[in-house]
Amino acid sequence: MMNAALRKQRLRAFIRQVWDLGNSAAADDYIAECYRIHHDPGDPWDGQSLDLAGYKDRVDRSRAAFPDQAFDIQGLFADGDHVVMTWLWSATHRGDLPGFPASGRTIRMSGATAYGYDADHRLTGHWQITDRLGVYQQLQANLSATR
Questions:
Q1: Would the CA dihedral through 53, 75, 77, 138 be positive or negative?
Q2: pLDDT (tens digit, 9 = 90+) per residue, 64-116?
Q3: Residues 33, 12: Cα–Cα separation, whole Å
């Protein structure tokens, strides 16, 4: 059984390696064979189960418009086989999104994500709440400013 401190340490390393640095290959060390996105409204993968290749593709696609993204972990809270991470996120809008050409401006959001672990200490999925409306509003404001 993995203790709470080790789960938190692995989650911190996973976020840094895979999401902050964009090393999707590092997902091999952290993601279970099946990763379920239980609840993540506004995420194109909401409700889906992904194999490892699908998860890596999700990372690469998600980072494409924001290659310098970084999570500032505010808190990690363990309960059973789950760790909840509260976070602040920021990134430069460097790639086009549908309806939003790259602006070169910084976008910020906040959220909370609950990650589940399996017996092999790999992440099995997440539930997430995030301020996607705030991101849309920032993108819209950047679009208006460039016109």
A1: negative
A2: 999 999 999 999 999 999 999 999 999 999 999 999 999 999 999 999 999 99
A3: 20
Rounded CA separation 139/135 (Å)? 6
Cβ partners under 8 Å of residue 133, min gap 6: none
pLDDT tens per residue, range 43-68? 999 999 999 999 999 999 999 999 99
CA 55, distance to chain mean position in Å, is: 11
For residue 146, the model assigns a pLDDT of 75
pLDDT at residue number 41:
94
Counted domains in the chain? 1
**Could you tell me if 128 and 43 are in contact, meaning their C-beta atoms sit under 8 angstroms apart?**
yes
Task: Tell me the residue range of the domain where 118 lies.
Answer: 4-145
pLDDT for res 2: 65
Q: In what order do the strands lie in the sheet with 70-79?
A: 49-50, 31-39, 123-130, 106-117, 82-92, 70-79
Are 116 and 2 contacting, i.e. CB atoms less than 8 angstroms apart? no
Which residues share a beta bridge with 124?
A: none
**CATH number of domain containing 27:** 3.10.450.50
